[in-house]
Amino acid sequence: MRFIHTADWHLGRVFGGQSLIQDQEFVLREFVELVRESKPDAVLISGDIYDRAVPPAAAVELYDQVLSQLIDLRVPVVAIAGNHDGPQRLAFGRQLMSQADYHIAGLPQEEISVVTLHDQHGPVHFHALPYAEPVVVRSLFKQPSISTHQEAMSACLASSVKRMATGGRHVLLAHAFVQGGSETPDSERPLSVGGADRVNASLFENFAYVALGHLHQPHAAGRPQIRYSGSLLKYSFAEEHHVKGVELIELTATGAVQREQIALHPRRDVRSIRVSLEELETQPYSLANREDYLQVILTDSANLMAPINRVREFFPNTLELVIEERLPNSPSNLSAPSFAEKSDIPQPIQMIEAFFEQRFGNSLTQPQYQKIQQILNDLRLQEQEIML
């Protein structure tokens, strides 16, 4: 049996103030065409279909269009909710939609939802386990001792493994941080603190293949048959070197796995460049990639007037401007900028700088600048936590 494994579409995502809905629509057209050409027996979507629990209308419309096209191709779709999704909303009408071979699992159940498909070698059972929040699983199984994601996943799987058919091949869809996976990417918030969000890959030994979602870089976790497909697009500058795509899986008669990663080609790339304003003005840049989403690290002195405007003359989709002089341990530490000018509107740090210069007649020292920036970052994180 051949199926496509994908995850972490994050429809409705906003990156650096820029809506990515058109970029998502663009790459999903390629995805649907891939399904049309490869003719898989199923498509698996392992969570985080939307970027937030209440997605914008454009995101819902886009998902509806993609599902309609897949159903027209007569390809069964098995999908689960991730930690970003609103599980009840996502699973609305699931019984009706299952008649059209769209099978969606929103909240964990005492018995994992199973979709059985057949090929010439017999049945393949797809176990759809949505994101299992410990507090939800604790209530579901009435086990007050459940406090970690490992315990929650174990409880969900234990009740279903006992019911697994003796014959056939078994595939699991899950949305979790499986031990052995890469570190949480910049664009994906941790599920909990102190390692309580980790799940051990040994829990999945009964499955021929485990189609994971949550981490955005494609990779195996624990063993080659336990895989993250990665996200649909690059959703942060930390992901600029990722190769985004889908997994095309062939499950043999014995349950052995053959896989192929198929790259998808975005409308715009996400990347970082290190350059001076003089280099921007004197060096030719390819028009083919000037629309990319950029983090521009400027090597000029920090005393610049509205440099974002000058940079955007060459790269209009510059989402983040970093002054290298203000980076910790500059110029080598380019991965964690402490200053970013993200729009034409003055940033808080700029207004504080202007006030300080007007009030005291000189500029902020480097330690003062870094301290203020740290305070602003802490406030921004607190605001994000409140919104979540």
From TrEMBL:
Keywords: DNA recombination, DNA replication, Endonuclease, Exonuclease, Hydrolase, Nuclease, Plasmid. InterPro entries: Calcineurin-like_PHP, DNA_Repair-Maintenance_Comp, Metallo-depent_PP-like, Mre11_N, SbcD, SbcD_C. GO terms for biological process: DNA recombination; DNA replication. Residues 1-218 form the Calcineurin-like phosphoesterase domain. Gene3D superfamilies: 3.60.21.10. Residues 267-358 form the Nuclease SbcCD subunit D C-terminal domain. Pfam families: Metallophos, SbcD_C. One of its GO terms (molecular function) is endonuclease activity. The keyword Transport does not apply. The keyword Transferase does not apply. Belongs to the SbcD family. Heterodimer of SbcC and SbcD. SbcCD cleaves DNA hairpin structures. These structures can inhibit DNA replication and are intermediates in certain DNA recombination reactions. The complex acts as a 3'->5' double strand exonuclease that can open hairpins. It also has a 5' single-strand endonuclease activity. This is Nuclease SbcCD subunit D. It comes from Deinococcus psychrotolerans.
